[in-house]
Amino acid sequence: MEIRNIQKTGDMHYLYLPTSWCREHKIGSRSKVSIGQSSDGSLVISPQIVEAKPKHLKLSISEDDEDVIHKLAVACYINPAGSFEINFEKEMDFTRLLNQKRLISLESVEIDKKQISCHGAVSVADPESLIKTMTKKIKNMITVMQKAYDKELIDRYEDEIDRSKMLIDKSIISSLTFERATKSKTIDLYYISLISKDLERMVDHLICVSSKESEFLTIVHDIIDQLHNIMENTPSLNCKTALQFVKKVTKIGGFEVKDIKSYDKERIRLSLVTIAEIVTDWAITKEIEK
Questions:
Q1: Of 5, 142, 184, 185, which has fewest CB within 10 angstroms of its CB?
Q2: Mind listing the pLDDT tens digit for each residue in 258-278?
Q3: 159 or 220, which is more confident?
Q4: Least confident of 91-105, 129-143, 176-190, 272-286
Q5: CATH class of 127-289
Q6: For the chain, what are the domain ranges?
Q7: pLDDT tens track for 74-89
């Protein structure tokens, strides 16, 4: 940390900005900066955010494997392009593409025989609100699984959870690429991204758990409920809160994998263990930031 003297002229107090910082952020005599105050009273000076205009992305490919095309379309969607089009050299059987569940759930995406296009892609500036929504949907899905097992409703919840994960990716990539103002710091975006990834993985196995596994579903519900509370109060996340969450997760004993049923439960447990580790890492980061 560099210490600088405060200058005073009349009633005005000022200090000089570091030359290297000004050079890095292209700060000149006509530039503007934003000044904010953190919770500990420190002043935070940031270069004025200049939001780049998302470009139109146009790709031409010879690929005809629907799995490969699906991955490319999702990548175009979650990146901050204002619009995109993927053109094929030859006509595709678009019904095969429509069978890709994640692809048809993408908002504003149109599929034709020789093109996939998207105009005016949705943009979300607050990934913290998305991770809260994601945990809440998982809680609701578990409740449906326990009380009124409706396969269609459960599948709908899974689709919405998958979509929340994609929107989180899209929001974070946009924030980092265009330096858009969000309520979250860059390090917070990192942890949100990791948690959402493992939540999605967990749900892929959770939907395979039978409603007869009521005790196990209740344990998972309680853990997700505690995680939801942590996501609702991330500014106050600390070591004590993280360790309480870790203890709750570790109460789930390991499962000996003998069949598909035990495999799914073990994968759920491992995802929750990973999330507990991420929450602990995040808590320690916040302790350092104090």
A1: 5
A2: 999 999 999 999 999 999 999
A3: 220
A4: 91-105
A5: mainly alpha
A6: 7-47, 56-119, 127-289
A7: 888 888 887 889 998 8
